[in-house]
Amino acid sequence: MAAAHAQSFDFESLTRMARDRAATAHQPASSKLPPDLARLNYDEVRDIRWRPDRALWRAENLPFEAMFFHLGLYQTQPVLINEITPQGTRHIRYSRADFDFGRNQVTHDAWGDLGFAGFRVHNHLNSAAYKDELVVFQGASYFRALGQGQQYGLSARGLAIDTVGAPPGQTEEFPRFTEFWLVRPEPGATQITVYALLDSPRATGAYRFDIRPGPQTTTTVRSRVFVRADGHTRTIATLGIAPLTSMFFFGENQPRKDDFRPEVHDSDGLMVATGEGEWLWRPLQNPRQTLVTSFATRNPRGFGLMQRDRQWSSYEDVEARYERRPSAWVRPLHDWGAGRVELVQLNTPDETHDNIVAYWVPAELPPPGQPMEFAYELSWQGDEQQRPPGSWATQSRRGMGYHKLSAEALRQQTQYVVDFEGPALAALPANAAVKAVVTAGPNGEVLESMAYRNPATNQWRMTLRVQRQRNDQPVELRAFLQHDNHAVSETWTHIILPE
Fold this sequence. Notes:
mainly beta, 6 helices, 33 strands, 15-stranded mixed sheet, ten-stranded antiparallel sheet, globular
């Protein structure tokens, strides 16, 4: 009987759960914690730790282990966690004995099956002597993973709803994974499978994650999303598929004079491979006001928030180690149809706040009850990462060198120096006639552009100078390198922010 139960749980049965839930009104989970737990502050909650000796699958000496996070402070809504084994599916109950409460004095006798805030999976990612943290699922529908030699940076989410586009007075909706099923790995397994049920006021979803560790850890995601049929909920304005969340405080294109570090960011650009074959690179910024831009395409080949700059000297931060932060590349596993890759850039006063979001927005939503299916591979990449086939930008610097411009002209003009490298450029002779093709939006005029080989690095350098018509309006720039009427680089596309 137990074996039949185990066989009955699969992605199709999870889909039925999501579909049934979408046909009913949303029932929010309780956020009420026991009084002793609710009074704990940030440091006290951090003092509650899962006991490693009680990790799921440690006693069986399996290649993966799971440990769970305790509820408290910001994590107040419980998630349910189950284990799928050949013998059946079992609910993992909360037990105080699984946790070390540190110096906290709490009365937990009446807490019952409290649930968990999330979980993390460990694996021999970097060495055979120790099982490192591989992936974390915690908070709303957030998750993040690591490849070999990486440190945590940006995060992914299951779904984003109305990050932008909501009616005035309405805020972003954060769907959450309410229940997980962890499939017990076989001895010698090289990947682990996690199922998740997503729920929110206006959507539900069934998710499967196949996580394969390595130098470039991959998370293969299969999702079926249902728009809720409840007629009392407002229409979804922006449905974000495969959303990524990161941080950009400042960088070479937006330097900061009062910080000893040259750059501070988890990601330095958005890369898009359109369905039409164009590769786009948009350097990230920290705008004063929210900036939303998008790239329309059909059947995108991929998109991601990338940390291209992997040099320690670019960051000089011995604790944060931004050069070790992963890039996240989304590769669709089937045709996604028409839509757009949307980039949302928010202002942040420091590096403790995420301010960058990117996701895919389908052109149309199905009627309630009809699923939207999206499958994609999400790769957590380090030094070896996705690149355009021709050449790509390695740095985008903003600023003037020696000049004789007046103060007024200097206020209206902006100069960028962009370096490119890649096989298409490496194959050209040093005296090749490479041209910088630069265009500006209606608020800008390209005053100067040129391309030349940099003998110090053997890369190719593009410089461009632009004059704004109105300083209180943005200017969109597009530029690429051309040789013999053929593009030999990705398209560098940037926004000059309004002042």
